Amino acid sequence: MEKAYQEYARQKGALIWGEKSVHFHHSLERLVKDFPDARFIFLWRDLAAICRSVIRAKPDFFLGRSRMTERTLARYKALKVESDRLISRGVPVHQIDYETLVKDPAGVMTDVCKFLGVPFVASMASLEGADRSAIYAGGHHALVKSERIVSSLERAEVLPPDLKSKIERYICLWREESGGKWPVLSTRQNGDSAKPPLRERLFDRALYRCLRTYDSMVVVIYCFAPFWLLKGYRAYKRRILHQDPWEDYDSGRQAGFNR
What we know:
By secondary structure, this protein is mostly helical. It contains 10 helices and 2 strands; from the N terminus they run ααβααβαααααα.
């Protein structure tokens, strides 16, 4: 795996390579074992803003995957737990606030470069001329495909009221647990928000465990199912969604490997 990443970085003329998949949120300690020289950068974004992006992306990005907002909420906390474990072990960790990055990209990227031990280049703080070959077409990628860096908080509200209330309840809980330190708030919370009741927390925890079990079963199936069956399933999902949202992504990555 590491050689594949290194080759891709070489073709891009990059000094270092990285991985930004959200699917490693619960297995960072395993990554430390597999890549002992790795450095970890955590980009903390407003949870409500993340859920808005999830809602805008469905079903194009997630191919009809269910319960994505519930997954997002649970993963947010899981990532915090994993990041704290890395810090306690002395693993190199650098944390960034999303809104600070938007307001001061040059300052934030200068600190990132110091952390990684690479020289800062002014173009890192701009979207002009950025390499977007790995970013496929999609309405939720409109901001990253533009030439201006703007806050996603300025976009129209798409959160259902019940989900917005749930997010506020969990943020209230987490800030109490952390002594008001986490998560950092990008927007003002509803002063009337209360912590989620025990039954809600137990239900959400059980639901997330079921979803993770389901995801693990899918991985096993993909490992052993015949290729013709997987192609047929993908074609079926493509018909359901009337498009193949991965097509541009696959094409971009393949073009990168073929250069």
